[in-house]
Design brief:
Layout lengths: L6 E3 L11 E3 L5 E6 L2 E6 L6 E7 L5 E6 L8 E6 L4 E5 L4 E6 L6 E6 L6 E6 L4 E5 L4 E5 L6 E6 L6 E6 L4 E5 L5 E6 L6 E6 L19 H5 L4 H10 L2 E6 L3 E6 L4 E7 L22 E2 L7 E5 L5 E5 L8 E3 L12 E9 L2 E8 L3 E6 L4 E7 L5 E6 L6 E6 L4 E5 L9 E4 L7 E6 L6 E6 L4 E5 L11 E2 L8 E7 L17 E6 L4 E4 L9 E2 H9 L8 E6 L5 E6 L3 E6 L4 E7 L5 E6 L12 E6 L4 E5 L1 H5 L6 E3 L4 E3 L6 E6 L6 E6 L4 E5 L4 E6 L6 E6 L6 E6 L4 E5 L11 H20 L18 H13 L8 H20 L23 H9 L4 H6 L7 H6 L4 H20 L19 H17 L3 H11 L2 H10 L5 H6 L5 H17 L3 H10 L3 H10 L3 H11 L5 H16 L3 H10 L3 H9 L4 H13 ...
Parallel strand pairs: 45-49
Antiparallel strand pairs: 1-57, 2-3, 3-4, 4-5, 6-7, 7-8, 8-9, 10-11, 11-12, 12-13, 14-15, 15-16, 16-17, 18-19, 19-20, 20-21, 22-23, 23-24, 24-25, 26-27, 27-28, 28-29, 30-31, 31-32, 32-33, 34-35, 35-36, 36-37, 38-39, 39-40, 40-41, 42-43, 43-44, 44-45, 46-47, 47-48, 48-50, 51-52, 52-53, 53-54, ...
Amino acid sequence: MAAAGVRVLPASPNWYCSRCSDASSDGRLFGFAARHRVCLLDVGAAAPTFYGELIGHTDRISGFAFCHCPGQSSLCASSSDDGSVKIWDTEALAPVAEYSLHQNAISALHWSPLVKDLIVSGDEKGIIVCYWHNRSDSQQFFPEPRTIFCLTCSPHQENLVAIGYKDGMVVIIDISRKREVIHRLRGHDDEIHCLAWCPVPGEERLPAWQDELHVPSEEGEVPNGALTQDTTTKKGCYLASGSKDQTIRVWSCTRGRSVMTLKLPPTKRRGGAVDPAVKERIWLTVHWPSGRSTEIVSSSFGGELLLWDLTQSGKRKWTLLGSSEGQNHSRIVFNLSSVKHQDKELLFSISMDRDVKCWDLSTLDCSWTMPSLGGFVYSLAFSPVDTGCLAIGVGDSMIRVWNTLSMNNIYDVKTFWQSIKSKVTALSWHPTKEGCLAFGTDDGKVGIFDTFSSSAKNKPPQISSTYHKKTVYTLAWGPPTPPLSSGGEGEQPSVTLYSCAGEGIVFQHNPWKLNGEANDINKVIRDTNSIKHKLPARTEVSWKPDGKLLALGNEDGSIEIFQAPNLKLLCTIQQHHKLINAIRWHHEHGSQPELSYLIASGSINATIYVHSLKSVVESTSESPLTITEPFRTLAGHTAKITSLSWSPHHEGRLVSACYDGTAQVWDVMKEEPLCNYRGHQGRLLSVQWSPVDSDSVYTGADDFSVHKWHISKQEHTRPPQGKKSIELEKKRSMQPKVKSKKKKPIGKSPAKQDLSDAMNGDDSMKEMLLEENGVSYHEGEKDAQEAELPDKVSMTVSKDTSSSACDYSSFNLPKPFVTQKATPVKKDPPKEKPASDASLKKRKPRSILPFSTFMDHRSKDELHQDCLRLATCLKTKGNNDDVSPDLKDRIHLGLFTDRASLHEMIDVEGKHHLENGHPELFQQLMLWKGDMKGVLQAAAERGELTDQLVAISPMAGYQAWVWTVEAFAKQLCFQEQYVKAASHLLSIHKVYEAIELLKVNHFYREAIVIAKARLRPEDPILKDLYTSWAALLEKDGHYSMAAKCYLGASSPYDAVKVLAKKGDVTSLKTAAELALISGEEELSATLSFRCAQDLLLSRNWVGAQEVLQHHKTLFGQRLVFCLNELLCKCLSERNPCDRRSPVPPCYHSWELNREASFFDMVIQVWQNVLGMDTTEQATCAKEQLHSIEHPPSTSNTHPKQVLFHISHDLTLAALSYRTATWDEAVKSVLGAVTRSYDAGNFTLMQEICSIVLPEGCDNLRHKLDNTNSQSMDACRSLEGFVAYRLLYDLWWNPPKDSLVLQKAGLDPVLCPSEQTALEKSYISGHSSPEETPDQTAVEMHENPCSTTEVCRCETESNSRTSSVDDLVNRQSKLTGCKVLLSEEIAALQNTQRDIAEVQQILADMIHQHQQQRNNLQENTNGSSQESNLQQSLETESDKPCSDSKPMNCKDEVKEPITLPELTKQLLNAKQKLAEFPDNLKVFPFPDVLECCVVLLHMGSQCPPELHRQALDLLRKHGSANIYKKAGRRFLT
C-alpha cells in the first residue's frame, strides 16, 4: 500500500503494447505498465487514487494482466524486456513467482480466464509458452515462425488461444493437443493490434450479420439444415480482431473465416495536443464488453473511441464515446479494459497522450481523467498569484499546470506542449502577473507561456531570440539591471527574466521584447567591480524576494552576493567546493525580520549550508568580504542536493531534495532533521512546499512522477544512512545498466519526430543513458562536471608531474626491479582509480625516467640511505673538484650531482627503454642529452626513423638533416609509402628524384602534380609522364583518361586515336570533334564518317547528319545519307509488315513532294535542306563520291550495308540526273539494281526498280547518246533487269480469280525465298552449285507446274469472259519481257557456267587431296590407316556423282575425271568466252534460261511467239543438269 494520503501524478503507461494495462475482476484496482514498473490505481471510489507500484523488473514491461478467476483477484502477471514473467500479489505489492522461459523479447501475455494458474505468453520469434504456476509446469508451442503481436485465451474453452501476428495472420491453437493449429484466419494485411473473444458463447444469434457476408456461396450454407445451427450454438464463439490496416474483423471459430468487416470511419479530429508535422500512427485496439454480444468498443484515428453496434448496418453502426468537447483522448489509444462496478460498467483506456481515462459505458461519458508523466520531473513551481497552481516541467517536452485546489477534480491538469520540443528543465512564475510562466529547456531555449487566458490551450509561447548553448538550469524573475535599468521610468519592465545554463552564462531577458538581444550580466559585473580576471562559470541564480540582492552559484562551489541594481559584489561565500545546484532565500513575512537574510545552498556535496548575510549587508566595508563559516550546517544526506524549498508557513524550516532518493525536512535553527520521505523510486530532482497546506510537500523525481505527501505521516525522521543508502545506490545503478543496452523497440516512430512520440520508454532511455554517465538531472554540464570531479582528483596528480608520487602506478618497470617490495604509498592511487575507460586513457603517458623514479619510491630506509650517500658524494666533490663522485649502484642520484653522473644515469635509463621496446623514449633521452647524430644513425640503421626524428634532425646541422631525410625516404619506400617518401624528397629539393620515384611506382597523377608545380613547362619529363601514364591507361581500357593525358602532352593526334579505339558511336563522335578542334581535318572526317555509319546501323539518320555536317569533304556523304533515309522511308511505307526492329528509326521531319518522281523528290530535299543549289556543287559532290569504290555485294553482306551501297549508287545517279549526264545516270542506276541482285535480295531489287523506274526505261533510253555503245549496253542491261522484275511480278501475282486455288497449291510467300536460293547459287556465280539449289529447282519447277495447270483449267471452265481483258493486258506486258530472250547472252552465260563448274570440280579435287594427306600424316596406327584410306577412296568415287554436275549426263560420270581432261575443258570454255564481243561482258544480265523456264511455266498467259522462242533457247543451251531437270516437262 502506498503511504497514507500520498497523491501522485504517476509515470505514463508504455506505448505500443497489445496488453499492458488491466483492471482487477473485483473492480477495485486498475494497473498499467509504466517503464519497468507497474502502477496501480485504486478505482473503487468516484475519483482514482494512487495505490502503489510493483517494482522488480529491470527493463520495459511489455505485458500486464490480472487473474480473472474467482477468489484470485489480487494476483496479476507482468512480462518484461528483461526476459522474465513475474507473478505479483497486489495486497503485499510483492512478487510471488518468476520465470524466464523465453529466449526472445516477450511481446504478448494473458492470464487464462478459465484456468486459475495458467499464464500464456508469446515472443517476437513466434514461440508461445504456457506456464501453470501452481505446479511450475510449462509447455512450448511454435505454430508460426512470425512475430507475435497479441494473444488472448478463450473465455469459453480453456484450451483455445487466439494469436495475432505482425504480418496480419491470426491463428487459433488448441494447447491440449501438441502443435495443433485449429484455424489460420487470413484477411488482415498488417499488424494485428488486439484480439477479443465474444463474451457470450455460440454463433447463432446475429441475424443481421448474414447480409454482411462477402462470400455469396455462404448464403446457401447458412440455412443448410439444423446441423450447422446445432454445432455452432454449442461449440462456436466469435473472435474480433483489430489491425493496423484500419479494419476490425469478426471471425467465426467454427467456420474458420471472417463473417464481418468493419472499416474505421474517418472521424473528425478534435483539436488535440498534436504537432501537425507528426504523422499519427494508427493503433486499433478492440474490447468486447462482458455480457454484450452485439457491441464492441474500438479505438480509432487520433484517440477517439467508437462503440459499434453489430446488429445495425451502414452509418448507424458506430457511436462516438465522449459527447462533450475535450473528453476524448488526443492521441492514439493503446489498450481498453472494462470492469463491472456496483451497477455500472466502467471502461479504462490508456493513450499516447499520457492520460488514463475511465468511461461509463451506460452513458458513454468520461468519468475521470488521470494525467501521467513521460519523463523526469525536472522542475516544480507554485504560482505566487494563483494560489495552489503548480507548474511541472517534465522531460517529455511538456509542461503540466496542476490546479491542486480544484474541488470537483483532484487531477485538474492542463498540458502545454507548443514550440517546446525538448525537455523542460526550469520553470518560474512571474511574481505579480497571473498566468505568466517562464520555462527553460534542455536545448537552451527560454520562453514564456500565458497559462491563464481561455485560449491559452492552443496559444504558442513567446520564445526568446537568445538561446543558451546548453541546458537551462535555472530561471529567476528579478529587478532590471543595466542596461535595462538605465531607461527612464515607465520605459522598462518592473521585473526581468534571468536564465542560467550549462555553459555558465546568465542572461537577462526583457519580457516585453523577447525577440531582442538578451544581456550577459557578467559584463555589468565586470564593469561595476572592475574585474579583470576570468569569471567563474555560473550554475545557479537566485534573487532575494525584495529584489535587493542577487546570489550567483558557481561551478567552483563559491556563491557571490551582488547588490542591485548595478551588481556591486558584496561578498563571496567559500563554503561548498563543488558545483552549486540550489540557492534559496528565506521568505520575508516572518516575525523575525533577521531571518530574511538567511540563504540556504546545496551542491554536489551532500551537506546543505545556511548563511546569514545580515552583517554583510549592514557592513560599510568598501571591498567585498569573504565568508568561510556557515551560520548553520545541515548534514545527513548521502548524495548530491538537487533542490531546496523554505516553508512559507514556518520560520527557519527547509525541505531538501536529494539524489539519495529521499526528501528531508529540517529545522534550520536547531540543525535538526524532522522528517524524511522515501516514497519515490528514483533520485529526487525538484521539491516545493505547498503554499496552502503547512503539512504538505510536493516532490518530483527521475521515476517520472510527482508525489504530494504529508510531513506528519512519515515514519522516518532522517535520511537513510549506511546500508539503506547503499541499497538505494545499488537499486539506482541496477536500473539503467540494462536499459542502456536496449535498442529502440521495433516499429516505433523515430525519436526525431517529437520527443514525446518515441514511446513512453524512450524518454526514459535517454534519461537512463544519462544517468549511467552520472549526468542526469539537467542532463547538461552541471552534472558532467560533478561526475568527473572525483576522477579528476586522482588524475591531475599523475598527469602533471612526470615523477610525482602517483606516477609509477602506470609504468612498466624494468624487469630486475619488480621484485623489490613496493611501499604502501604505491598502493593508494589504484584504489581511487575509477574504472571508467576515460580515466584509463588519461593515465597513458609513460615516464621517460622510470628507473630513477622507481628508485626514489623505495622504502623509507633506502631513501634515508640515498640522502646520506648523496651528501657524502657532494662533500668529496666539494673537496676535490676533478674527481667525479662515485655513486656506486645508486645511479639515480646523478639527478642531484654533476653532469657526468647525469649522463651515466641517462645511459642506464636509455638501455632500459631499448630492452623494453620503447626506442622512442630512448631517442628522446638522447635528444635531451644532446647526442642527436648518434640517435639518427642508430634509428636509420634499424629502420626506425619517424616523422618526429626527421623533424628534429636539423638540430644536428644541414648535412645531417639531408642525410636523414634521404634515409627516411628509403625506409618509407620499403614500407611502400611512396607518396610520403616523395614528399620528404621534395623537402630537400630533390624534385626529379621524387617524380621518378612516383613514376616508377605508377603514382602518375601525383608525379604530374609535382612536375607541373615545380618544373619548367617545357621540361621533357612532363611529356614523358603524360605519355607513360597514357600508355598504361590505354592498356587498361581507360581511353578517355588516356586521351586527356595525350592532350596534356600536346599530342592531340594520339588523343583522337585512343578515343576512337573503343569504336562506339559516342567515342567516335567525340574523337571526331576533338580532331576537328586540333586541326586534323582528314582524320576528323574519317571518324565522322565511321560514326555516321554506326548511327545508320541503329537507323538514326538525324544523328548521322549532325555528325557529317561539320565537314565540307563529306558533303557527298551527306547526300548519300539523305537519299538513304528517303529510300528507307519509301521501302518501309511499301512493306509495312516488315518485322519491328528493337530500335525505332529516327527520321528527319522533312517536307516531301510525294507527287514528284523519286529523284526529283530527293533533289528537292537536297536543295532545301542541304543547300545544294548550283551545278558546281553537284559536280563537286559527284567527284567526291566517284573516288569511293565499294566492293561488290554478296549474299553475306549485311542488308543495311547493301542498302547503303545502293544509296551511294543512286546518289551518283541523282547527281548525274541533276547535271543531265544521262550516260552516267544509267550506269549508276544499273549498279544499284545489280548490287541488290548480287546480294541475293530479289525483293529489294524489285522495290528499287519500281521506286526509281516506275515507268520502265523508255524515258531514259530517249535521253541517251546513241553513238555511245557503252551507255546503250548499260541501258539494255537495265531494261533486262526491269523486265526480269516484271516477269516475276506477273508470275507471282496470277489473275485474280485463280488466286484461291493458287494458295491451295503453293504458298506464294515461299516463292521469293526459293527463287532467291536458286538465284544465289547459279546465276550470280558466287556460290557453288551443290545440292540445295538442285533440289530447290526441282521442287520449284514441279510445284508451280501443277498449280499453273490447275489455274489454267479453272480459268477456262469458270470465268473465261471476265479474265479475257486481264489476259490481254498481261500478254502485252509479257511482250515487254522479250528483251530477256537474247540468244547471244544465253550462249555467253552458258560458257560462263561451264567455266564455273570446271573450276568447282577442280577445287573439290584439291580439297579432297589435302584431306587425304592430312589423314595419312595424322594416323600412325596401321589398321586405322587402311580404313581411312578406304573411306577416302570411297568418298572420292562417290563425290563426283553426288556433288558435281558435269555437262554430260549423270550416268556417264562413273569414273573420276582426270586432271588433264578438266584443264582441256577449261581452256575450250575460255576460248569460247573470248570469242564473244566485249560489250556483252561488261554489264551483268539476268539469267536468260531461267527467264525461259519462268515464261514456259506461265502457260496460257505467255504470248505464243515468246513461248516458242523460250523453248528454242532451252533446247539449244539448256545442257546444264539443272535446266534439264527444270525444262524436262516442256522439252519432252
